[in-house]
Amino acid sequence: MSTLKNRYxxxxxYDVENGNPNGDPDAGNMPRIDPETGYGIVTDVCLxxxxxxxxxxxxxxxxxxxxxxxxxIPLNANHVEAYKAVNLPIDDKNFKAKPVEIQxxxxxxxxxxxxxxxxxxxxxxxLNCGQVRGPVQINFSRSxxxxxxxxxxxxxxxxxxxEEAEKERTIGRKHIVPYGLYRVEGYVSAKLANDQxxxxxxxxxxxxxxxxxxxxxxxxxRSAARGKMATRKLFIxxxxxxxxxxxxxxxxxxxxxxxxxxxxxPRSFNDYIVQIDKEKLPNGVHxxxxx
Length: 291
Known about the structure:
Elements: E1 8-19, E2 23-24, E3 30-31, E4 39-42, H1 44-59, H2 75-85, H3 99-112, H4 114-119, E5 120-122, E6 131-133, E7 136-138, E8 141-146, E9 150-156, E10 170-188, H5 190-194, H6 204-216, E11 228-239, H7 248-252, E12 255-259, E13 272-276, E14 285-289
Antiparallel strand pairs: 1-10, 1-11, 2-3, 4-8, 5-6, 7-10, 8-10, 9-10, 11-14, 12-13
Helix pairs in contact: 1-6, 2-3
């Protein structure tokens, strides 16, 4: 795999139509919202799950592309596997791994698990495999405009339990956003990927798979609850160096999204104009539009 040589930032635009992009369990699974402004929110964890699922679908259990945070697999089971792989004892309760031994287990996990190599992980529970600070970090998503949390009542022409048979039907509810365009920003650090002691080995090949996942993750995550979701735009800022040539916020400010008509609520991506202020792009930074 080729070594990552450049710093990157990115801006991803995606939308939802008649769906719930990220339910809040503390609010009856209603779409997440900033209560002060009414803007919609999607957590970084939500998007990372979709990226993990896409990578697992594409790569399966291919060596180097396994998924650490995986449904039905206790995290500590991966630590046991790592200790076995680097010949550290797993049954000796008095054994306490030395820093150099923890580093060996940590390196094995980074080599074998794509999501740890990408996002990092805290692996100090059970058998200690240390901590990893991932070179790829993602912010919370925020909608371009305030969203409407809509509750839709639905009926089912059957019941769950036999003692309810005389009711003939069941009433339920779905929580949706009629339409919302969301923006999320993220960072890719070549320095964190390549550091001699803290690096994860995240490579150019890993990065290309990451871009592919951002573009396609909604295409394989369909459900009635999520409605119609799609990646609309992916802007990538590539620096000429590992350390970078400009502050991230300056680059993010160069991507502007505006409504075409302020008088009516947006109901599609075509209701927006996406503008790029190329005058704000400093020397040493190149803008790549992947979609």
